[in-house]
Amino acid sequence: MSKRPGRTWWGQRFLEALAGCTDAGRLKRGRGYAGPSRILAFATDETGVTATVRGNVNPYYGVYEEPRYEIRIELMPIPPAGWDKAIAYLGERAGFVAQLLMGEMPDDIEAAFSDLKLALLPSSRRDFRLTDCSCPDYANPCKHIAGVYYRLAAELDQDPFLLFELRGLPRERLLEGLRRTPLGRALVGLIAEEDGPIEPADSFFTRPLPAPAVPDYATFWSGHRRLPADIAPVTPAAVPALLIKKGGDYPPFWDKDGSFVALMEELYLRVRSGGRRPR
């Protein structure tokens, strides 16, 4: 778990939704309930989050034994028809398909869901179907629920695909749906292609091969797979190293507040510019 939750844009949006549905006092106290010393158990499933939070002994209110509170948080699920529409929409755009199949969260995915009149990230209390705590506090969300929110935001920083699962779509079902789209099949086919076995050559020079009797000029110029006519423009990656990007902005070994990918982008630019600081 990252040391400070909300370090990614989607984690920050999740915390903004929390700030809009609780008072500042409980929100501030909730930060103290987000650590492992308070959250004794934490688990996610297709419908929400379940947690056990350690409370305080308070003889003034007759609490002489340390209490354990059970918390349940559920987001409003997207219906299956909505997910079918979303997968079809995302599957027509090469940038979305490529990034999601590689385990990355596209920066403009929220705008895509907005075009479909769907919500992936929560924006208000209406996006939460259930927020429940067994503590006697009348307010909802209480400080214990707020602590679990912070813990969940930290989990989202590490694994943004939890957003899809909390909205009712498991990761494998999402990826399988994208693989079945025409673009997904093409990309998976390219990724799955493997080099043939290495065989010794009888000559240092490449020998010419006889051409077929009737060349297939149409396939030569158009290719075996036809790409869609409308392809979103792709900007060149500042960090071409795939392993760095797959780790995300805040990989588990990175404890700084700044983005690890942003740091590597600056390093790559300095190498390209001969050591000069990029402008």
From TrEMBL:
Molecular function terms, GO-annotated: zinc ion binding
Record key words, sorted: Metal-binding, Zinc, Zinc-finger
UniProt-listed PROSITE patterns: ZF_SWIM
Keyword Thylakoid among record annotations: no
Record flagged with keyword Metal-binding: yes
InterPro entries linked: Znf_SWIM
Domain SWIM-type: 118-153
The protein's name in its UniProt record: SWIM-type domain-containing protein
